[in-house]
Amino acid sequence: MTATPEAPRAGGIHPNSFHGPLPDVAADAGYVDHPPRKGFFTDTSVCIGCKACEVACKEWNEVPADGYQLSGMSYDNTQALGAATWRHVAFVEKPLNPTTTDLGLPGMGPPGFEGYESGVQTAKPRPEDQATESGDGSIRWLMSSDVCKHCTHAACLDVCPTGSLFRTEFGTVVVQQDICNGCGYCVPACPYGVIDLSEDDHKAHKCTLCYDRLKEDQTPACAQACPTESIQFGDLDELRERADARVAELHEKGVDVARLYGHDPGDGVGGDGAFFLLLDEPEVYGLPPDPVVTTRDIASIWKHVGAAAATLAGLAAVSFLGGKRS
Amino acid sequence: MREQSMVPEPEFESYYGRQIIKTPTWKTPDVPLYLFLGGMAGSSAVMAECAALTGNESLERMTRLVAAGGAAVGTGFLVHDLGRPERFLNMLRVLKVTSPLSVGSFILAPFSSLAAASAASQLTGRLPVLGRLAGLGAAVFGPPLVTYTAALLANTAVPAWHEAHRELPFVFAGSGATAASGMAMVLIPAAANPPARRFAIAGAALELTAAELLRRRLGMLAEPYEQGRSGRLMKLASRMTAASAVVSWVGRRSRVVSALCGATYVAASAITRFGVFEAGLASARDPKYVVIPQRERLAARAAAGPAPDVDHAPEEQPTASS
């Protein structure tokens, strides 16, 4: 985990610049003297779904409102990250236990779940589900505040043709609004579906990890507003150690479902600057189970593009020169 | 022939069935039309040089015009697709190999300038040597212009595009060849145009073969290329291309048949780009195309041996998917 950062070589390209573990992402981007990499550790086991992070983010960053849309998705009317949503609190409601006992009583759970119509009560929660027990015994609640992952290998940054997206000295990824021309390439490039074009100014927007606050040695707005320290901000190395300790603690207490997501520098994006402690599979929260930066395959892509171009030229030559006396 | 699988689709979980990656914001018809016009223009520039080398003057003239016109109109669509069109020149402030759109800008900009110069020289008869050199330059940038657009789509997280990155450039190369030669068959009387007919047949064979390989290799990610609206477009395009290839050969003595086949090639090439584009959008909208292949990848990795840093969580028993 604490690999010694390799000395930055001026103008040099790290062998893992496109893919794989990269010990010093800011140095790889060309910063010679830079602060340690900053990030978020979002511990969803203590998230209470208050959405203070969403509000604080909107207020500090002056992100426009996204209107009042009732989604029908539990208490989540925010629905997804986007140009005007840089923190998104997901609410997962799932029946707790498939083992049921028919007591012949009217249902207690919210509509739409088994047991409501039939009056079937689900059994008591198992000990391993304790961390997610809501109290009514039939629904398991998961809450998680999602955010831009500030990937080690950020596809949005890689594909940006204007250089508008850039790597900061803190190792985070930020859009320069005065450069972005709204080409939209970053939008389908992101394996997490984070960045999007704004309908107001037609430019790309996403979490900046409060770049302006970081420059003043301040904590990002969401982390500062979080009342339960579910969102923790700090040096990434330290956050990773803290997260490992937290998972070990939860496992000790019998919460075997706790697992980290995005913490591993060996994963498909070289590890996330913003990573998570989850209590279920990532896709349950709307996160991809095994994200990979598309640029990992850029060499193969160009190779095939080149071969196809050569094939095209060859076919043309043969078609014309094959029958010269036209 | 592939068999229809009788195995039910694997269960997967999602967040209220919502998509995981974002749907590309690229507009229809702007971007598919740009892909088509770029393909036609790039291939036309190659044809123009081949025609010049073989002394086929009428074909040279027409293909130079198509190359210049296609590039100009295509660039118009590309700029129009930008959220901030007035900033389109920002594309040229950096060159990044990790961004096919950046590399493509540095292909499109010289190509369209050179193609326009050679067409202008051809039309006016002025500066013939410089015009020919410009045409030669356009022919160099032409094939990359045809195939880089496959990289543009493939270098994204969109499953049906990214996983097709080996075959898509060849599909686009074949499709570009049929578009350019099809257009030439429309514009030039059949008797003077056997090279265009041959080039179209070669392009059709390349495109259809590459598309078939793509569908075979992609597994469940081939579904958007076979089903729904995008699947219908792909099927229609491949049938039109195949029919044109056969009919243009059988009826090669008829000008009318040649022109009709040419028009069908051009239309089929455009429909192919719409089909590929729509297939990507369909695969972005459905979380199963993101979750299931990634789950299979994880399972394969787990089966291959313990990862250096495994998840601590044990496998959960399957829960009801929402």
Question: What class do helices, strands and sheet pairing of chain A give?
Answer: alpha+beta
Strand order of the largest sheet of chain A: 10-1-12-11
* CATH architecture grouping of the largest domain in chain A: 2-Layer Sandwich
Q: For the record, what CATH class of the largest domain in chain A applies? A: Alpha Beta
Low-pLDDT residue spans of chain A: 1-11, 111-135
**Proportion of β residues of chain B?**
under 5%
The number of helices of chain A is: 8
Shape of chain B: globular
The profile of the biggest β sheet of chain B is: none
Overall pLDDT confidence of chain A: 87
Number of domains of chain A: 2
Alpha carbon gap, first and last residue of chain A: 68 Å
Q: Any idea of the CATH topology of chain B?
A: Formate dehydrogenase/DMSO reductase fold
**Rough shape of chain A?**
globular
Assembly status = heterodimer
What's the CATH H-level homologous superfamily of chain B? Answer: Formate dehydrogenase/DMSO reductase domain
Contiguous uncertain segments of 5+ residues of chain B: 309-322
Structural class of chain B: mainly alpha
Could you characterize the architecture of this molecule?
The complex is a heterodimer of chains A (326) and B (322). Chain A is of the alpha+beta class. Chain A has helices spanning 25-28, 52-61, 155-159, 186-189, 211-215, 221-225, 236-252, 298-321; strands at residues 38-43, 87-95, 100-102, 120-122, 139-147, 165-167, 173-175, 196-197, 204-205, 231-235, 259-261, 274-278. Chain A folds into two domains: 25-92 and 144-296, Alpha-Beta Plaits (2-Layer Sandwich); 98-142, no CATH class. In chain A, the strands form five sheets. In chain A, strands 10-1-12-11 form a four-stranded mixed sheet. In chain A, strands 2-5 form a two-stranded antiparallel sheet. Chain A has a two-stranded antiparallel sheet with strand order 3-4. In chain A, a hairpin with a 6-residue loop joins strand 8 (196-197) and strand 9. The longest helix of chain A is centred in the last third of the chain and has 24 residues, at 298-321. Chain B has a single domain, classed as Formate dehydrogenase/DMSO reductase fold. Chain B has 322 residues and is mainly alpha-helical. Mean pLDDT of chain B is 92; it is low at 309-322. Chain B is built from eleven helices and no strands. Chain B is 70% helix and 0% strand. Chains A and B meet through strand 2, helix 3, helix 4, strand 8 and helix 8 of A and helix 1, helix 3, helix 4, helix 6 and helix 7 of B.
